[in-house]
Amino acid sequence: MPPEPLSGHAGDAPLFNRLCLIGVGLIGSSIARAARERGDIARTVVAHTRRPETLAKVRALGFADVVEEDPARAVEGADAVILCVPVGAYAGVMAQIAPHLAPGCILSDVGSTKGSVIRDLLPQLPPGVRLVPAHPMAGTEHSGPEAGFATLFEGRYCILTPVPNGDPAAVEKITALWRRCGSMVERMDAETHDKVVAIVSHLPHLIAFTICGTADDLAEETREAVLKFAASGFRDFTRIASSDVDMWRDIFLNNRDALLEMLARFTEDSHALARAVRYGQAEFIEDRIRRGRRIRRGLIERKQA
Amino acid sequence: MPPEPLSGHAGDAPLFNRLCLIGVGLIGSSIARAARERGDIARTVVAHTRRPETLAKVRALGFADVVEEDPARAVEGADAVILCVPVGAYAGVMAQIAPHLAPGCILSDVGSTKGSVIRDLLPQLPPGVRLVPAHPMAGTEHSGPEAGFATLFEGRYCILTPVPNGDPAAVEKITALWRRCGSMVERMDAETHDKVVAIVSHLPHLIAFTICGTADDLAEETREAVLKFAASGFRDFTRIASSDVDMWRDIFLNNRDALLEMLARFTEDSHALARAVRYGQAEFIEDRIRRGRRIRRGLIERKQA
Ligand SMILES: NC(=O)c1ccc[n+]([C@@H]2O[C@H](COP(=O)([O-])OP(=O)(O)OC[C@H]3O[C@@H](n4cnc5c(N)ncnc54)[C@H](OP(=O)(O)O)[C@@H]3O)[C@@H](O)[C@H]2O)c1
Ligand SMILES: NC(=O)c1ccc[n+]([C@@H]2O[C@H](COP(=O)([O-])OP(=O)(O)OC[C@H]3O[C@@H](n4cnc5c(N)ncnc54)[C@H](OP(=O)(O)O)[C@@H]3O)[C@@H](O)[C@H]2O)c1
C-alpha cells in the first residue's frame, strides 16, 4: 500500500483518541505536527518533555493540544503512547510511566536502536499494554521542538520490529499511523534492524566523528589548511558529524555489538586496501573502487541517492 | 586579489599565445572552455588526448582550436603546457613530450598529488622549461570531455606548489591563469599539500570505497536491506565512491606515505572510540562527538560547507 498523501482526511476516523508523545524534539514534534495537519491520526495530542525551557517552547509552538510536565499524568487515559527520547533514557522514563499506562494502550517508540529498546521496555510492560517498537528512517542534523515539521516522514521508510507474541492489531494501528505520516512501512526482527542501521548509519557516524578528531589533532599549521581546503569528501563527513551529542552517545552505547562488529569488518577491509596501496597492487585497488561504484549504482536504481 | 569574473575581457591581452592541454577530460576540458569563453587566457588552445574515441569526442565538442593526436606535435611551439591526465601517467607522458618542449615554455599540471608529480617531472625537465605544479580543488563525480564546464573552478581554491629555485615569473603567470578561471590561488610546499589532501580528500575516499565493499560482503539478506534503507550517512559516503577508477588508483598509489599515515592515525582514533563504546565510557564518546561539531562549525564559518 503506498503512503497516503498528507492533507486533511476529514472522512477518516482518527486512529487514536488520545495520543501521548513522551519527548517532543525533532521526531516527536514532527509526529505532533503531522497529526495536527491531518486530523485523522488522533483526536487529542498530549506532549511531555523534561526540561522547563523545552516545555515553554512546546507551549509557544502550539502543536500539541495538551502540554504536560509530569510524564505519569501525560500518559493517563492515552490509548497510544510514543517514546521520542534518546534510547538511553528509555528504562528511566518507562519506570515513571509504566504504572500509569491504561490497559489496552499501545506503547510505541521512534528509537534508532531496537534490541536495546525491547530489552529496556519489555520487562517493565504492564499486562494488557501492547508494545510495537518502530524506527522512522528520517531526520535532519537539527534537534529540538523547533526543528520538527509535518512532512519529515514523507516518502521515507519506517521500520517496525514487532515483538514475539505481540498483538497484530496493535502493529496494524502503528503501521497505519506511519502511513498517514507519509512513510513506507517495513517489518523485520530487531537483530536484523540493528545490523542494517549499524552499517548504513551508525558506523558512518562513528567514522565521521572520528575523522574530525583526527584532523583536529594534526599540527596547528596543517589543521588551518585542512579547514580551508576541506574538499567535498571531508565536507560530507562533517555534515554527518554535526548531529546531537546525547542521541548519538545513546545510539553507540545501545547498538554496541552490531556497531563493533561492523567496525571490525570495516577495519579489516580498510587494512586490506592500505596493504594494497603499500605494495602497489593496482588491480586490488581498482577492484575496491569498482565495487563502491556498483553499490552506488544500486542506490541510484532504488532512487534512494 | 579576488578572482576575476568569468566574462570576456577583450581589453586584457591573453596570458599565453599557445596553450596546450595534455588530457582533456573533466579538468582539461574545463580549462579549455574557460579559455574559450574569456578570451584572455590564450590565443590558441591545443588539446591532446590519448584514445581515438576521446579524440573524436573532443573534435565534436569543439572547445579547442587545434586537436592533436600526437602529444609531441601537440606541445610544439606552445608557451604553456598543462598536464591533465591521471598522475600515474605523468612519467610516461613526460618522456614523450620533453624533447619537444620549447625553451622558455611553462609546464604546469592539475594533478591531485604533488610530491609524486615533482618526482616524475623534474628529472626529465629540459633546460629552460619552467615547472609550476598546481592542483585545482574542484571536481565532480563525472569524468571525460563531456563532463567539463567553464565555471568549474569558480570560487574554488587552486593550490600551487612551486619548486625550489623555480621561476617566479612563471608562478605569477600560472597564478593569473587560475584567477582568470575564477579560483582563489594559494601556495604551499608539496609535502604539506599532500598531507592536507590526504586527510580532507584521499582518506575519505579510501573509507568510502571500503565501506561500500564491507556492506557488499554482508550476507545476501542484510545487503538487500542495506541498499533499501541506506540512510543519509551511507548515502554521502557512496556519493564519494562513484568517482573515476584510474584517477583514484593513481592518487592512492602516488600519495602513499601521507595516505597511510592518515589512515593509521584515523584507525587509532576509531579504535579508541570503539573501546569507549565497548566499556560504556559515555564522557569519552560525548567528547568525540563534540569535537566533530566544533570542526563542522569551523567549516561553516569559512563558508566551505
Ligand atoms: N534525529 C534523527 O535523525 C532521528 C531519526 C530517527 C530516530 N531518532 C530517534 O528519535 C529519538 C528522539 O530524537 P530527536 O532527534 O527527536 O531528539 P531531540 O530533538 O534532541 O529531542 C529529544 C527529546 O527527548 C527529551 N529527552 C532528552 N533526554 C532525555 C532524558 N534523559 N530523559 C527524558 N527525556 C529526555 C528531550 O526533552 P528536553 O529537551 O525537555 O530535555 C526532547 O523532548 C531518539 O531515540 C533517536 O534515536 C532520531
Ligand atoms: N576529477 C576531479 O575531481 C579532479 C580534481 C582535481 C584534480 N584532478 C586531477 O586532474 C587530472 C585529470 O582528471 P580528470 O577528472 O580530468 O580525468 P578524466 O576526465 O578521466 O580525463 C583524463 C584525461 O587523461 C587522459 N588519460 C587517461 N589515462 C591516460 C594515460 N595513461 N596516458 C595518457 N593519457 C591518459 C584521458 O585520455 P583518453 O580519454 O583519451 O584515454 C583524458 O584525456 C588527474 O590528475 C586528477 O588527479 C581531478
TrEMBL record, chains A, B:
> Which key words are in the record?
Amino-acid biosynthesis, Aromatic amino acid biosynthesis, NAD, Oxidoreductase, Tyrosine biosynthesis
The protein's superkingdom reads: Bacteria
Q: Which family does the similarity line name?
A: Belongs to the prephenate/arogenate dehydrogenase family.
Entry keyword Cytoplasm: no
What's its top-level EC category? oxidoreductase
UniProt-recorded name of the protein: prephenate dehydrogenase
Q: Which reaction does it catalyse?
A: prephenate + NAD(+) = 3-(4-hydroxyphenyl)pyruvate + CO2 + NADH
What GO biological process terms are annotated to this protein in UniProt?
tyrosine biosynthetic process
Q: Say if the entry is tagged with keyword RNA-binding.
A: no
As recorded in UniProt, its EC number(s) are 1.3.1.12
Q: Which InterPro entries match?
A: 6-PGluconate_DH-like_C_sf, NAD(P)-bd_dom_sf, PDH_C, PDH_N, Preph/Arog_dehydrog, Prephen_DH
Domain Prephenate/arogenate dehydrogenase, chain residue ranges per copy = 17-305
User: Which Gene3D superfamilies does this entry report, sorted A to Z?
Assistant: 6-phosphogluconate dehydrogenase C-terminal like domain, NAD(P)-binding Rossmann-like Domain
GO MF entries:
NAD+ binding; prephenate dehydrogenase (NAD+) activity; prephenate dehydrogenase (NADP+) activity
Pathway annotation: Amino-acid biosynthesis; L-tyrosine biosynthesis; (4-hydroxyphenyl)pyruvate from prephenate (NAD(+) route): step 1/1
User: PROSITE patterns given for it?
Assistant: PDH_ADH
